[in-house]
Design brief:
By secondary structure, the protein is an alpha+beta fold. The protein has a two-stranded antiparallel sheet with strand order 1-2. Helix 1 packs antiparallel against helix 2. It is elongated.
Amino acid sequence: YAAAEDFKQAAAGLLAVRLSNMPGDYLMWFRPEVAQTVHWAGNPEKAVAKHEGQLRLSPRQSFETWTQLVKGTSQPWQTFEVEMALSLRNDVKDFIFQKYREVQQTNRELTEAYDDLETFSYSVSHDLRAPLRTIEAYADIIKENYHDALGEDGLGYLDNIQSSSTRLGQLIAGLLAYTRAGRKNLILNILPVREVIQNEAK
């Protein structure tokens, strides 16, 4: 592999096992280059001779040992190394499957907790709205029937009661909407952050 020439000291040999069918899910081991000397019974280039302008196969003229230095490869992977790699893959897959089951259990628990929170929030919101409506109704009655007798201070107090009741009603509605937010699809909007900050600073 010519492109590996630059990093052959770290990865001239590769052993890879696949964890799943997803691209990139592999365990990989690398080995550095180990130059090897290969011994031949003769020079393989001498197996072809030129006779009357034509190349013909002929017995080699010399059977002296011929050596060749092979580069760009690593030591071969032994059978036990391949078996260990496959065993490790199985252990990793078992571990991943175990974590997957734990995540599933956590998701189920979160879903149940979220449902409980929604039920609780709905119940609290409903229980708070009833007395709040009573306060608002009595404030309207007092303001309408005893307007002249209350005076400026009394009317101011009623205004505070009504505004506080309105604000509390908005908080209750917001709480209920928040607990139901997970049930709705997200709606993405562009928010002018600078404008919001400037308005808040005023």
